[in-house]
Amino acid sequence: MATRVLSTEEAKTAIRQIQSIVNGGFTDQITQLDTQGRVLSDPNVWDGPLAETFRNGTWPETKSALDNAKQQLEELRNQLDRISQDIFTAGGGA
């Protein structure tokens, strides 16, 4: 039985859109969020009960999620070239 290979213009457009989003600064924005979160975590910059809650709970949890998202985006970025190459090859060219 033959394996079906399909690559539509919609697939090509979708892969280019994903590449544009990831390469267009999304991971940079995550880095910027991390920088500002660290600033707010400094008790010399912001202190008090809400600041302490942020510093000890909110920010560590958020930073962990951001780090995970950034790692996954970097893995996706590494796969995008292979994915796009497969799509373009299946579709008969660029």
From TrEMBL:
* Keywords in alphabetical order: Coiled coil
**Coiled coil among keywords:** yes
Q: Which domain of life is it from?
A: Bacteria
Coiled coil (residue ranges): 59-86
**Protein name in the entry:** Pyrophosphorylase
UniProt source species: Enteractinococcus helveticum
